[in-house]
Protein: Adenosylhomocysteinase
Organism: Microlunatus antarcticus
Amino acid sequence: MDYRVADLSLAELGRKEISLAEHEMPGLMEMRTRFAEQQPLAGARIAGSIHMTVQTAVLVETLVALGADVRWASCNIFSTQDAAAAALVVGDGTPEAPGGVPVFAWKGETLTEYWDCTREVLGWPDGELPNMILDDGGDATMLVHLAVEAQKTGVLPEATEDDPEELHVLYALIAKTIEQGVDWIAISSSIRGVTEETTTGVHRLYEMLREHKLLFPAINVNDSVTKSKFDNKYGTRHSLIDGLNRATDVLIGGKVAVVCGYGDVGKGCAEALRGQGARVIVTEVDPICALQAAMDGFQVTTLENALAEGDIYVTATGCKDVITADQMSRMKPQAVVSNIGHFDNEIDVAGLARRVDATKVNIKPQVDQWVFDAGTDDERSVILLSEGRLMNLGNATGHPSFVMSNSFTNQVLAQVEIFTKPEEYPLGVYTLPKHLDELVARLHLPALGVELTELTPNQASYLGVQPEGPYKTDDYRY
Ligand code: NAI
């Protein structure tokens, strides 16, 4: 059985959700129309590691329609939508949804299962190796890099006591595969490139590039304008509230919400919370983003200063230890604590688990109450969402289709770029050219009834651009 999902009987539901999503994903559907005949991804074997949602299912079937052979895992233990995963495996008998996609993902994986699933997508049962990675957060890329280093040096990575459980599990997996004789160097050599979805994964890529450790070229999809300025901002503006409501249903209006980080994601979160009537406090380390938040009308202070007031906390920094266990123990009664950044180390959940005065009471899946000094006069608690993992995908269904169509159209274009023109992408980290970024936006305008003004040739020459674009230089910030 070359797949592992929760329940194949959910496939019919998944298929219905996928067909509704297709209508909301005009960019992806246009990729199918434009490229189906050409089959630019024929011969591509894509190892995918990205939240296994309904929107991802439309992405996967688009890659398949363009000729790719894919294997898929989720990049988070809680983010899989089981119906979508089942639908990809089962298909519906049409050429658009042939089924048979090897998906290894279900909601509520253990960490060991998570890394096993990531490993599963990096090899085909007939011995074929992947030649492309589509990554979100960089876990599949990191597995290959660490395993190659271990194989080359003969030294297995070792986790220390201070390392998170994730690393212990990952290192054990690497040791096991090397013992089994998996040739990671061959896997890495066969990979033409990776296309990376998110801010945190992109940071990892640039770091590896700086340290001369990067093994294959990468396209930074996140920094397409039509990705980070849309998905990160407008996507979270929608899905943050969805996560809070499904998890707790506390009234947001009138409450004090604390948003840590005022980058693209933080901006979407703060706007959404204000839209619900919350008084929003922002914390920042970057003076430019702090000034932006202040001018957008938000109070900017430190987390320490906000503790006395905050009812709802959201971390959106991509940093670590942003909310400590001690700070949680000093929050208002039943404050809701959540993270929307990529990894779970923004909130010190491990620190909570180590405290002898803290006990966890599970309320429902992905909602826990952490009680401090239970049974004493000083008893108090906070509500923690998705164990500190990204709550918009753990407690809700992530961003809506229309915004993901922008992100995923960039993903498809990036896969086609690296796979079909490897000579134009020597080892390095690239963003897509501006004309493709503008194309992604263009493909989404008709659905919103947008009428675009056209430059006259005279105006265009006055601005020094072509009438059909690109309209901005690469360093324009939007
Ligand atoms: P960004 O780099 O634009 O913004 C992060 C902001 O946090 C920066 O302005 C930075 O100065 C600030 N910051 C860093 N450390 C801080 C600290 N200790 N305290 C307060 N502020 C701090 O990044 P972006 O694009 O907003 O992404 C944030 C995170 O969200 C990343 O991990 C990214 O991968 C993830 N992400 C999650 C999505 C989701 O659906 N859950 C969607 C898109 C991105």
The mean pLDDT is 98.
